[in-house]
Specification:
Strand content: under 5%
Keywords: Membrane, Transmembrane, Transmembrane helix
Shape: elongated
Number of helices: 4
Helix content: 55-70%
Structural class: mainly alpha
Order of helices and strands: HHHH
Number of domains: 1
Oligomer: single chain
Radius of gyration: 15 Å
Length: 94
């Protein structure tokens, strides 16, 4: 149980840091730097896994200019799925 809680908060911190970094790198009038494009891919395909497999538009809020209301439940649901997948992996690995 402890490992599940720790995994949840570590993934939550990583997602939060990546979203803040994404906002900081995209606040420019110039074309996006290569780092911002790489960070977008990491945020979408790694931090967005497994929901990105179900809906290729997830995380859809990355390309919107307004803050959607469903962002918080979607991110939390994705983190819960990631933690469950990690727990299954660790139990199979044993």
């Amino acid at each position: 149980m402890r490992r599940i809680i720790i995994s949840f908060f570590v993934i939550l911190l990583i997602d939060f840091f990546m979203i803040i970094l994404f906002i900081a790198l995209h606040m420019t009038d110039e074309p996006l730097p290569i780092v911002a494009n790489l960070q977008f891919g990491v945020l979408k395909y790694i931090c967005g896994f497994p929901l990105v497999l179900i809906n290729t538009e997830y995380p859809f809020f990355l390309s919107e200019s307004t803050f959607p209301k469903q962002i918080i439940p979607m991110v939390i649901m994705n983190i819960v799925l990631q933690v469950l997948l990690l727990e299954i992996y660790f139990r199979i690995k044993k």
